[in-house]
Write a structure and sequence with these properties.
single chain, about 120 residues, two-stranded antiparallel sheet
């Protein structure tokens, strides 16, 4: 049976929790809908995080990202929603999500959000 979009994100144990390291992902095929016109919005998402105890499983992330395809949402809201969901599931030391939306009406939008564990002072960049 073909895969379907899903809201669930699977995780696995961090194989090296004793050290800080950064996992970076580029997701060039993100789509959602403009909540005002219903027209598609296209973006490249760049996710970077320093895992604590958990890492994100890639197929589940792909299906999660797919679940936004038919949803209407403003760029700012959807970027924060994804970052919040990932931060809640993974509890990373630090997470940064950059959403670079394609030009629409002569304007290209970039939204960046960061989530950190309290007291963690490292960098995800």
């Amino acid at each position: 049976m073909p895969s379907q979009p899903a809201q669930a994100i699977a995780t696995f144990a961090n194989p090296a929790p004793q050290v800080d390291y950064t996992i970076r992902m580029r997701i060039p095929e993100f789509t959602c809908l403009c909540p005002l016109t219903g027209q598609p919005d296209f973006a490249t998402l760049r996710l970077a995080y320093v895992p604590d105890r958990l890492c994100v499983e890639l197929k589940s992330l792909k299906l999660y990202i797919w679940s936004f395809r038919d949803r209407g949402a403003f760029h700012e809201a959807i970027t924060n929603e994804i970052a919040d969901h990932l931060a809640t599931m993974l509890l990373p030391r630090c997470l940064r999500l950059d959403a670079r939306f394609k030009i629409r009406g002569g304007i290209a939008t970039e939204v960046s959000v960061e989530r950190r564990q309290s007291g963690w002072s490292g960098s995800v960049l």
